[in-house]
């Protein structure tokens, strides 16, 4: 029987390779980012997108320069895929990280969950506001965001027929005669 007392060690007393073990997730894999590092990386990505717009080539359609090419800067759309490439991770890792920590109650996991949700909200807000201002294509943004404009109909569909009957009128019709006389009187009074 072991009668030795277990000694709790602090971070300072552990070798460097064991210090990394303190940042392990439940499954044993180390996290690539803390909440603060992920947030800082996302802010750097957003700044990078804002400072580096996409150059769109357009043809001038009228005036003296008609037919010439011009380049117009268009804002980059924030995307989770772009953020992951910028951070050197893939989207699957980001999704798994969120799935692994969403039910945890420790402070770092809660903070990381909130940071990931905040990043998703920032990306969605930028897309929708730029689409509303016509800076981004609203159709593409609505498809990416899963937005849809639909009307639900209920009830039975009945087949209806519409017919249009044209009547031709001649100057002999009383209404047309009256209008013609009024028009002539108006022109004479000018």
Task: Give me a quick take on this structure.
This protein has 190 residues and is mostly helical. It is built from 7 helices and 2 strands; from the N terminus they run ααββααααα. It has a domain at 23-145: Topoisomerase I, Chain A, domain 4.
Mind explaining what this structure looks like?
This protein has 190 residues and is mainly alpha-helical. The chain is flat and about 95 Å long. The chain has a domain at 23-145: Topoisomerase I, Chain A, domain 4 (Orthogonal Bundle), CATH 1.10.132.80. It has helices at 16-19, 35-51, 80-87, 91-101, 107-132, 138-145, 174-189; strands at 54-59, 69-74. The chain starts with 15 loop residues before the first helix and ends with a helix. The protein has a two-stranded antiparallel sheet. α2 runs parallel beside α5.
């Amino acid at each position: 029987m072991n009668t030795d007392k277990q000694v709790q060690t602090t971070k300072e007393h552990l070798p460097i390779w064991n210090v990394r073990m303190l940042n392990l997730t439940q499954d044993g894999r180390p996290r690539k980012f803390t909440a603060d590092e992920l947030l800082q990386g996302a802010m750097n990505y957003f700044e990078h997108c804002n400072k580096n717009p996409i150059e769109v080539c357009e043809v001038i359609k009228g005036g003296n320069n008609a037919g010439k090419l011009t380049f117009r800067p268009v804002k980059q759309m924030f995307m989770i895929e772009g953020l992951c490439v910028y951070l050197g991770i893939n989207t699957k890792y980001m999704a798994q990280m969120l799935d692994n920590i969403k039910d945890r109650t420790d402070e770092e996991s809660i903070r990381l969950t909130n940071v990931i949700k905040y990043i998703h909200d920032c990306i969605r807000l930028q897309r929708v506001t730029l689409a509303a201002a016509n800076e981004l294509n609203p159709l593409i943004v609505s498809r990416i965001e899963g937005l849809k404009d639909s009307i639900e109909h209920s009830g039975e569909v009945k087949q209806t027929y519409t017919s249009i009957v044209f009547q031709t009128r001649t100057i002999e019709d009383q209404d047309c005669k009256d209008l013609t006389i009024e028009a002539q009187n108006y022109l004479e009074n000018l």
